[in-house]
Structure to design on (194 residues):
């Protein structure tokens, strides 16, 4: 089992793509852990080649090492574990949405993950089959109390949006749950970081 704070740091580095990575103080503060804990975690991850360190000015900055296959497997495992933590309405809708077979990646995001009071269910589908997605979401919306609102993109479109700094897409990738296509999610993040 992966220690809770280690998982927290890895997921933070995965979801927060920074050109230079993050220094130890930023990692500690943004994850609400002590600098000492962050230091130990980062040293261990660096030793295992899960992260890479680069020196910028007088500070060490850390990023995930996507060249290491263990990093990819660890991140996939953590994304799968995150999906299992879904509760309430998010879990109910996720069980329906994941049945869509014609998407490379499906991501649940928005207010359904944060609150019991939500107006709709936002879902990102990476697929070229726009009509199928719309029909599928309409069917779910007929059965459930809130509508499912699809955002349909191609893999290259999402990569381009992140590289251009589109805050809506970056925020979506940061605060979402991957329902399907963990490897595609990692591929997108890796391409953006390289």
């Amino acid at each position: 089992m992966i220690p809770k704070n280690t998982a927290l740091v890895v997921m933070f580095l995965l979801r927060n793509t920074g050109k230079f990575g993050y220094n130890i103080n930023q990692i500690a503060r943004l994850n609400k852990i002590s600098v000492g804990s962050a230091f130990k975690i980062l040293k261990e991850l660096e030793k295992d080649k899960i992260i890479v360190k680069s020196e910028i000015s007088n500070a060490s900055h850390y990023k995930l090492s996507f060249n290491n296959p263990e990093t990819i497997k660890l991140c996939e495992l953590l994304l799968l574990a995150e999906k299992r933590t879904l509760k309430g309405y998010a879990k109910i809708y996720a069980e329906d949405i994941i049945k869509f077979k014609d998407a490379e990646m499906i991501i649940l995001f928005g207010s359904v993950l944060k609150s019991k009071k939500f107006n709709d269910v936002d879902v990102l589908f990476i697929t070229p089959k726009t009509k199928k997605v719309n029909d599928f979401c309409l069917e779910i919306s007929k059965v459930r109390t809130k509508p499912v609102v699809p955002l349909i993109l191609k893999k290259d479109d999402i990569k381009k949006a992140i590289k251009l700094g589109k805050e809506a897409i970056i925020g979506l990738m940061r605060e979402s749950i991957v329902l399907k296509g963990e490897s595609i999610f990692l591929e997108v993040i890796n391409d953006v970081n390289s």
